[in-house]
């Protein structure tokens, strides 16, 4: 049975895609040079003209080998892909959605969408049909580009099942084995010279750095996931200042374990290399052994990843020590960094581990640790704000570890608006609280002009990605043996969190395998699902009826039994 919510506010989403920042904001940020008149297409054109045969992308595809694109080939592909999208009826302001692994085609598609003024909407491959249908319904995408199968899942087949319920979806494009009613990606996008057919039409199009050009969905926390509507300039603001301050150039080579379809991967593996004319190295499947080989072969100078992938890479290097003389920066994504990882990076690479913190709504980068910060500063801080960003710590009195302040942010990398995935509610950031955005995080000053994050004001759970708690709890309440449930985070040992389903049941408690099988049958994304289940007689609640999840979190880590707690405590 289809449980996708009714579509509302379709016109509101279409109108939101036409948003532009106020003229005064554009002038202010351009005068301070955190925004610009040009775009990432100008970066590509520059390097195509100055160093056409320099390698722009090295793409490792498991089972196939390595593909290399020069800057000339990169630019040629952008024109061809833009023509291919135009042939499919995509025009300025229309959405192109895609769900692909780390293949070089993602880099080109982002720029091809910018080339024709379309809106690029990437979706990570671990999102499953239940959530994917909701996302595509909200996006009203006319074209969806998918991998045929990936990581044991039949993406194209799953899409075919619910595609008839999406009235806006005109074309399904498949990279891999395409059926008769699907468009073969390689044939349509790579083999046909559409740039010749549509040369005149494409000549009349240009990228606008201040209109909505990218839609990224948050994972959701205690509420529904939201679409963050970004421009090329909000993205530029997030990555240009750190790139310039660190002095990267055309000799630099960038490798990230992050997904290209997630904001961290988009920034480090697409935007930053184009800013400086450097090289990006891609792995469609993250394997530490292959990553080490690519790092040595390509003289990688910047390495980025979440704690778990960095730890796996370090384990590989310890098993076969390999000189990496070009490596100058190691960056960890996320807010929680395990202490042992900080020590391991220093020991194995001889470098301090650094971080850049942000969120989907802020283009992934708001603060970052500078080179002049202490070597272990990542244990105490997520760094100082980038140029064009203001932070506001709101609390009655002074913020302390016991009384942390709620973190608000305002500035150049903040999205123009958010749109509820299911409700369609549009929130224009500039129209609320003088442009201040509530991050939902709790923070205190770090003593060096930056901040230390202490936790989440809402019940967020996750590591590299956040789990939409309400959504999962609602699904679990449909289980015939569950009377009440709370989803609570517990440490995964790698700097992130896993989800525990704390349930109330009158029957024999279902096992974790039972719950995951039930959620699998709903088509729920695998990493949303709990990894642990605990049964209690009743959930502790306050006088307002809200579950006291802080008590449950404490209990899961060895604290008092929630059954002994006062259920009506404030």
TrEMBL record:
Superkingdom: Bacteria
InterPro entries, per database record: AMP-bd_C (IPR025110), AMP-bd_C_sf (IPR045851), AMP-binding_CS (IPR020845), AMP-dep_synth/lig_dom (IPR000873), ANL_N_sf (IPR042099)
Assigned protein family: Belongs to the ATP-dependent AMP-binding enzyme family.
Keywords, in A-Z order: Ligase
All residue ranges annotated as the AMP-binding enzyme C-terminal domain in the record: 472-546
Cross-referenced Pfam families: AMP-binding (PF00501), AMP-binding_C (PF13193)
Protein name per its UniProtKB record: AMP-binding protein
Residue span, AMP-dependent synthetase/ligase domain: 46-412
């Amino acid at each position: 049975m289809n449980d996708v919510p009714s579509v509302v506010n379709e016109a509101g989403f279409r109108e939101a895609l036409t948003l532009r920042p106020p003229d005064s904001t554009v002038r202010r940020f351009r005068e301070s040079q955190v925004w610009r008149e040009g775009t990432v297409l100008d970066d590509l054109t520059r390097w195509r003209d100055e160093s056409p045969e320099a390698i722009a992308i090295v793409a490792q595809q498991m089972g196939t080998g390595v593909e290399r694109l020069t800057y000339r080939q990169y630019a040629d592909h952008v024109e061809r892909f833009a023509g291919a999208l135009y042939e499919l009826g995509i025009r300025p302001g229309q959405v192109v959605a895609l769900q692909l692994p780390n293949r070089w085609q993602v880099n080109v598609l982002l720029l091809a969408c910018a080339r024709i003024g379309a809106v690029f909407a990437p979706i990570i491959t671990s999102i499953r049909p239940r959530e994917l249908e909701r996302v595509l319904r909200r996006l009203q995408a006319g074209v969806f580009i998918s991998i045929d199968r990936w990581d044991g899942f039949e993406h194209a087949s799953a899409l075919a099942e619910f595609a008839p319920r999406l009235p806006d979806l005109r074309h399904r494009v498949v990279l891999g084995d395409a059926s008769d009613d699907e468009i073969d990606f390689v044939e349509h996008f790579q083999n046909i010279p559409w740039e010749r057919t549509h040369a005149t039409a494409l000549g009349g199009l240009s990228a606008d750095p201040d209109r909505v050009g990218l839609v990224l969905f948050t994972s959701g926390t205690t509420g529904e996931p939201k679409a963050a509507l970004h421009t090329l300039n909000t993205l530029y603001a997030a990555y240009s200042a750190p790139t310039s301050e660190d002095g990267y150039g055309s000799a630099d080579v960038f490798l990230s374990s992050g997904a290209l379809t997630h904001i961290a991967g988009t920034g480090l593996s697409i935007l930053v290399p184009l800013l400086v004319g450097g090289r990006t190295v891609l792995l469609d499947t993250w394997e530490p052994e292959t990553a080490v080989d690519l790092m040595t072969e390509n003289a990688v100078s910047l390495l980025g990843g979440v704690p778990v992938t960095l730890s796996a890479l370090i384990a590989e290097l310890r098993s076969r020590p390999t000189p990496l003389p070009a490596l100058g920066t190691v960056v960890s994504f996320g807010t929680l960094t395990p202490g042992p990882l900080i020590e391991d990076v220093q020991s194995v690479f001889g470098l301090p581990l650094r971080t850049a913190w942000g969120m989907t709504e802020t283009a992934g980068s708001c603060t970052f640790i500078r080179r002049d910060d202490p070597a272990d500063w990542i244990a105490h801080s997520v760094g100082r704000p980038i140029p064009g960003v203001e932070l506001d710590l709101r609390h009655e009195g002074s913020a302390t570890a016991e009384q942390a302040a709620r973190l608000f942010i305002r500035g150049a990398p903040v999205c123009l608006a958010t749109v509820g995935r299911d409700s369609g509610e549009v929130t224009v950031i500039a129209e609320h609280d003088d442009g201040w955005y509530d991050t939902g995080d709790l923070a205190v000053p770090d003593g060096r002009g930056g901040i230390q994050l202490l936790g989440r004001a809402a019940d967020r759970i996750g590591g590299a990605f956040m789990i939409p708690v309400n959504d999962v709890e609602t699904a679990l309440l449909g289980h015939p043996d569950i009377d009440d449930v709370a989803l609570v985070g517990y440490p995964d040992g790698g700097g992130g969190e896993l989800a525990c389903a704390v349930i109330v049941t009158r029957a024999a408690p279902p096992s974790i395998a039972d719950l995951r099988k039930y959620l699998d049958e709903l088509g729920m994304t695998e990493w949303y699902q709990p990894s642990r289940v605990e049964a209690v007689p009743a959930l502790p609640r306050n006088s307002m009826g809200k579950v006291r999840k802080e008590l449950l979190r404490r209990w899961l880590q060895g604290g008092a039994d929630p059954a002994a707690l006062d259920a009506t405590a404030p």
